[in-house]
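Assess this one:

_____
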Amino acid sequence: MSASTFALALIAGILPSLIWLWFWLREDAHPEPKGLIVATFLGGIIAVIMAIFAEQYVASLGYDNTTRYVLWAIIEEVSKLVIVASIVLFTRENDEPIDAMIYCIVGALGFAAVENFLFLLSPLANQGLAQGLATGNMRFIGATLVHIVSSALVGFSLGLVFYRRWYVKVIAVVIGLSLATALHAGFNLSIINGDTTDTLKAFLWVWAAVVVLMMLFEEIKVVHQKIIVN
């Protein structure tokens, strides 16, 4: 593999995440510290390494495709959350309900950047620029968004109970992770096991989920406003 192919895959893998990062950070009226944003994004990259080892172990156990992809979705969602929690969720910077959503999305984008890069290496090296760009576009409008929405569901669950006791937050995390895993695994299985029609349907409902995500951001902002008013 040439250095130019490697560099192109790296740029094409990271750029979609940076574009989405710019888009979602605009939702926060009180911007988070840039250092924590960078640290969380880099943490998402580390989460990929954690997930790869765990997924390789699961693959060695001989499960059927459906079980394997569900377990892989669980691993990825838990890995992203563990990293984000380790970096920022227990700090004083996580001081309003929307922050958990923001940081979970940032971590997911770091994760997606490396995943995109890995998926682009082979098409760019073996099938040329056109196929590589086609793969990159599909990652931009599909898989990257799945990571964003699934992690945002966990952040939203935490945001809803931001002012509640710790055990309520634990329940919220379990619910959020369950929803995130269902979304993530459902998308992967639709892409892998379905035909072209199923793939298009999967992309459509992912984009529908993005619209819902925008509504969830507004709901989280209302949670904070209600507390201020009271």
